[in-house]
Amino acid sequence: MRVVVIGAGVIGLSTALCIHERYRSVLQSLEVMVYADCFTPLTTTDVAAGLWQPYLSEPSNPQEANWNQQTFNYLLSLIGSPNTANMGLALVSGYNLFREAVPDPYWKDIVLGFRKLTVRELDMFPDYSYGWFNTSLILEGRKYLQWLTERLTERGVKFFLRKVESFEEVAREGADVIINCTGVWAGALQPDPLLQPGRGQIIKVDAPWLKHFIITHDPERGIYKSPYIIPGLQATTLGGIFQLGNWSETNNIPDHNTIWEGCCRLEPTLKDAKIIGEWSGFRPVRPQVRLEREQLCFGSSNTEVIHNYGHGGFGLTIHWGCAQEVAKLFGKILEERNLLRIPPSHL
Ligand SMILES: Cc1cc2nc3c(=O)[nH]c(=O)nc-3n(C[C@H](O)[C@H](O)[C@H](O)COP(=O)(O)OP(=O)(O)OC[C@H]3O[C@@H](n4cnc5c(N)ncnc54)[C@H](O)[C@@H]3O)c2cc1C
């Protein structure tokens, strides 16, 4: 059973790990390979701040809310374990700010200690009149990808730096199952008019005195189009750019100024912070995550493809729930092919 995962961002690597962890002991012939034309530190995942926070509105596919919750619970269960620091994982608390009252988000009972801001707290943010405080998690993309790569390497998973031109090419080389985790580039392998880039640009600064995330919202303009400040384990991420349909990979000065001025207005002490770097990346925006099986026929052979892409601005927030769902679909393929060995009884 040869499984090829295309993509080495958070979605590809976590899916590869989940499948290997779940099935290697019951399927000796399981061989997992990862193909990607970019590895860390060059993926979109490396650009992300890594805050666990879904969008404010409920997803149109209710399964996505479950996958978000499963991811939060999984990560929370690892807090305090020897892995936490190496994974780039930590608890983080902070503010979501609004200019008028809004309904509570559907994830208020998933995060810890969700509550509305008090008048005294709001006094710290003169441009805002309403908000929430809660504790969530940070999972730094770059650190997490390194950790996942180490876990996969230990398990014997092989990595190949290559651009895949078609599913057919991979199928003809002998893959039984292809897992498509190509993020915003999935449309190059199979047209998908629902998938679009949501370009972001971020500035990383050294500001160790900032301990809380501050995310502002302007519901009329849309998600992540107003300033946000997210402290990570080493650096703090400043952002507030979300441009649908923009494929420009280069950082630009107007966006830099928008981020810098917006964040300094929100947190004036940032003016003294040293800029460490600046990056742009494309959120794989889609009305719903595409997570489904598809059978493709090339010549006489049937190849199974499991798609797992389109995680927008919440890939780290949802990844583990999605990886588990893919593992479940993969298990069904094994069952259909009578490949699952019943584990020995312990009675
Ligand atoms: C500025 C910004 C901030 C963000 N902040 C957060 C945040 O705080 N929290 C959060 O949860 N999410 C955040 N996100 C979203 C998150 O980064 C994405 O949802 C996530 O990284 C998507 O992961 P992925 O693995 O699908 O894609 P990627 O990380 O882009 O990985 C795609 C992989 O597929 C490979 N690939 C694609 N096509 C091919 C091909 N044909 N052949 C070979 N390889 C191929 C690429 O080389 C790459 O390895 C942010 C995104 C941006 C841009």
TrEMBL record:
<keyword id="KW-0285">Flavoprotein</keyword>
<dbReference type="Pfam" id="PF01266">
    <property type="entry name" value="DAO"/>
</dbReference>
<keyword id="KW-0966">Cell projection</keyword>
<feature type="domain" description="FAD dependent oxidoreductase">
    <location>
        <begin position="2"/>
        <end position="329"/>
    </location>
</feature>
<keyword id="KW-0560">Oxidoreductase</keyword>
<keyword id="KW-0964">Secreted</keyword>
<keyword id="KW-0702">S-nitrosylation</keyword>
<dbReference type="InterPro" id="IPR023209">
    <property type="entry name" value="DAO"/>
</dbReference>
<dbReference type="InterPro" id="IPR006181">
    <property type="entry name" value="D-amino_acid_oxidase_CS"/>
</dbReference>
<keyword id="KW-0274">FAD</keyword>
<keyword id="KW-0597">Phosphoprotein</keyword>
<protein>
    <recommendedName>
        <fullName>D-amino-acid oxidase</fullName>
        <ecNumber>1.4.3.3</ecNumber>
    </recommendedName>
</protein>
<keyword id="KW-0963">Cytoplasm</keyword>
<comment type="similarity">
    <text>Belongs to the DAMOX/DASOX family.</text>
</comment>
<keyword id="KW-0770">Synapse</keyword>
<keyword id="KW-0576">Peroxisome</keyword>
<dbReference type="InterPro" id="IPR006076">
    <property type="entry name" value="FAD-dep_OxRdtase"/>
</dbReference>
